[in-house]
Amino acid sequence: MALQVDELDHEIIRALQEDSRLPFTEIAKRLGVVEGTVRNRVSRLVADGTLRLGATFDFAKLGFNSSAFLSIRVRGDRFDQVAEALKEIPEVSYLLVVTGDYDLMAELTCRDSDHLMATTRKIRGLPDVAATTTQTILHVYKELLPTLQPVES
Question: Which of 74, 104, 134, 135 is the least buried, fewest Cβ under 10 Å from its Cβ?
Fold first, then answer.
């Protein structure tokens, strides 16, 4: 059974989106509840998988200056096998099933164009990869997820 998420949960998530290091005591003060309520709500949301906490960072500042989207056509119905192989490649930072001319899309994060080319060759060489198309990312205008908005009743 799915976790029931209410407006207080949404407010807590929005506060964490704005500043993930915000202490629970500060969130509680803002929302007019006790700190234990915030702590329990966050624990419940994390345990359920509704909320994931983690660090984000600037890839370029860490020396990863070449990114691309790689569209992948799979032979037959071998999505799961190809996806499992792609999940093991460290340069694959995002992987999803898509509709259209291709079956999977992967975001690649690499040090430079040589690293990107080597990674795309590695992926093209995987069993059951029929074709790929690479779209190099030249500039990122927005990277963060939108701020969670309440669901209208």
Answer: 135
- The reported pLDDT for the residue numbered 18 is 86
What span, in angstroms and rounded, lies between the C-alpha atoms of 130 and 74?
A: 5
Range 45-49, long-range pairs (CB < 8 A, 24+ positions): 45/3, 45/5, 45/9, 45/12, 45/13, 48/3
Count of other CB atoms within 10 angstroms of residue 62: 10
pLDDT at position 55: 76
Q: Kind of pairing, strands 129-137 and 66-74?
A: antiparallel
The mean per-residue pLDDT over the stretch 71-92 comes to 95
CA atoms in the 13 A half-sphere facing the CB of 118: 10
Residue type, 137: I
Distance between CA atoms of 132 and 30, rounded to whole angstroms? 49
Determine the pLDDT at residue 1: 56
